[in-house]
Amino acid sequence: MIVEGRPVIHFASSNYLDLAHHPDVVEAAAAAGRSHGCAAAGSRLICGNSDLHEDLEGALAEFLGAEASLAFSTGYMAIVGVLATLVRPGDIVVSDSLNHASIIDGCRLARADVRVFPHGSVDALAELLPVAAADAARQGLRVVLALDGVYSMDGDVAPLPAMARLARNYEAIVLLDDAHGFATLGHSGRGAAELLGAEDGVDVHIGTLGKALGSFGAFVAGSSRLRDLLVNAARTFLFTCALSPPQVAAARAALRIVQAEPLRRTRLQGNAARLRARLAAHGIATAPSATHIVPVIVGDNESTMQLSERLLDRGYFAQGIRHPSVPHATARLRLTLMATHSAEEIDALAEAVAEELPRAIERRPGERSADPERR
Question: What pLDDT does 371 receive?
């Protein structure tokens, strides 16, 4: 990418499979623009529906082994819309403490009774779910277990098999936000649930078109009844313009590539493993990452952004993530890999991080941090 006129290597993109510039994807978008125009020009229920939307939704459902799917304008709108539709006021949502902000906001909008358990803790969930289920049964309420597939700031994968089994034991609906896992994980690219053999335990599968598929938008996959409900009741679907034809066609072309070229996923995860190994050789921990999202914890906000700027000066765009986006004192570099990064680029980045990290966190005697959380 070009930053302030200088070419730099991008290590902060969600274009994980490098499909946004793939010639087939670009041409599909251009062809759809020529044939259908650049805008849907209305909501799906008024005039925005097209054969392109229905073809993409059918392909996504088939790919995931679901009865149906429905496209949304953004991932945020998909999650908020699903939760506000499925969950009535007072229904119980059991939520991982590190779930994405869209899940948190969806629960607020639905006026759900939210019960949070420590991140990734099966034991804590095993204690919380029976209590939630008993409370729900007494009041005729519903229980939803909401999880991310891949956690976007740490790069770890939810322990889906154990959590899905617990949910089944207590008749909880399992909602999985797999924005970062879809098309990047699993033998076929179906995501975190496929990787861990837990696909049968997921009731509502939410994925994005704007990350690994290199387009824009999102989708919800599940039963035909779920789709019908969302079409008629999800406000974030009803009251917004449909995805534009070029975006839809780009996503459809990208899905074909995902299915035809599994080597892209293999290269992506191989690149991530290489970066973690190179950083570990320099004594830099990246746990609990097990995917293409690799965190380097720095600590305070100021030092994190200093490190980001130092790397930019050396030709690497590696974005710092600060509190309150992450918990206090855990500001970090959030490094994301792409299938097309070379081994030489990865090794050079690791070397640069190892050299610049100590310099970024150095303090002169008596110097105070400019981090507002430490004032």
Answer: 42
